Amino acid sequence: MSNLIYYKRNLPHRLPAGEAIFLTFRLAGSLPREVIAQLQAETDLGLNRLTLDSAQAYAEQKKYFGCFDTQLAKGEFGPTWLRHPAIAGLVAQSLHYFHGKTTTCAAIA
Q1: How far apart are CA 14 and CA 8, in angstroms?
Q2: Contact 18/8 with Cβ under 8 angstroms?
Q3: For FRET with 66, which of 5, 43, 47, 72 sits at 20 to 30 Å CA-CA?
């Protein structure tokens, strides 16, 4: 994992230098605060239960992200803007804006 660019805001980010990345985002209000708090508490418990090496900590974070993503995929709560074709198209267009262009982490952050 030493060849990855690493930075942390709300969650750690590991970016493979020169490679495509998987980008996930969500609309504000798309998950109840209680669900987010529960997922975070479960992750904190997993991260704090043992002394984890970086690979184990990364695996715990991936598990958290997977649970988070599963909750989002249910679409049971919050706004549904992306179900509107015009809005979904605009978001898709913006996500492809940098395709084929060289960027740096400073430009993304």
Answers
A1: 9
A2: no
A3: 5
CA distance to 41, 46, 86, per residue, from 52 (Å): 17, 9, 45
Between 33-48 and 54-74, two packed helices, what is the crossing angle to 10 degrees?
160
> pLDDT tens for residues 65-103?
888 888 888 888 888 888 899 999 998 998 888 777 765
Lookup: tokens for 51: 């002394």
Torsion, Cα 75 79 84 88, to 10 degrees, reads -80
